[in-house]
Amino acid sequence: MIPSLFITHGTPMLAVEDTTYSRYLEELGRTFPRPQAIILFSAHWESDVQMISEIDEYSMMYDFGGFPNELYQVIYPAKGSKEVSLQVQELLNAAGIANRTERERGLDHGSWTILKRMYPDADIPLIAMSVNPSLTPAEQYAIGKALAPLREQDVLIIGSGVTVHNFGLLRAKDKSAVKSLVLGFEKWLENHMKQWDLDSLFRYEELAPNAKIAVPQQAKEHFIPVFYTMGAANQNEFTKTLFQGLVMDVIMNSVYQYGE
């Protein structure tokens, strides 16, 4: 049974910059068990009802501005799988989770930045999925849990986001305090994920240190992919930290594995 992954997508520059993190994702793609298909929950696709792509070939979305021209030339020709999309729909229906299909939306940068690094040949079928910040963490977890049987078919379930997502911290004058805040929140999250302490994780807003700064209300969509991908590993409660790196003392480039 293939594990699920939470992967930080950081800035779109991840797709073109040569960094320790971009090289790590390339190595991860080479060494991680090769999936038969990928289901990816992206922080950059929000919807009130669970959306599921049913697309033969994705177009590109350059859903950002102010970046170098080379970034707008990146092409990731991902293809979908109607068979896997239908399986996702059936599993969500069986769990009583409302869902709809999407047949036109292109691939946002929360998806193609990390996939271009991990699987540059774009030769693994992809199902893009939305996230819903209005749901409770338990409801987000339940969506991932409903899809857990697909891991037995070597379908890789990825949550793409950022654990600490508050650009206001870039303007803070006390950089050491910001770094301490970010690392403190990340350590709390990592510890409780490794304990599979869902009671505390689902109440992270009140229990995690500086949670409302680390995960402000307007940016929850970047944090919640953690719950979707943890839910997918509900049968074997195991968390492994694969990568952590601090960027500008504000953004954690984190990769977590759930399940074995």
UniProtKB/TrEMBL annotation:
Keyword Metal-binding: yes
Required cofactor(s): Zn(2+)
Residue stretches making up the Extradiol ring-cleavage dioxygenase class III enzyme subunit B domain: 5-243
GO molecular function annotation: dioxygenase activity
Alphabetical keyword list: Dioxygenase, Metal-binding, Oxidoreductase, Zinc
CDD domains found in the cross-reference section: 45_DOPA_Dioxygenase (cd07363)
One Pfam assignment: LigB
Family, similarity comment: Belongs to the DODA-type extradiol aromatic ring-opening dioxygenase family.
Official protein name in the record: Dioxygenase
Record organism: Paenibacillus marchantiophytorum
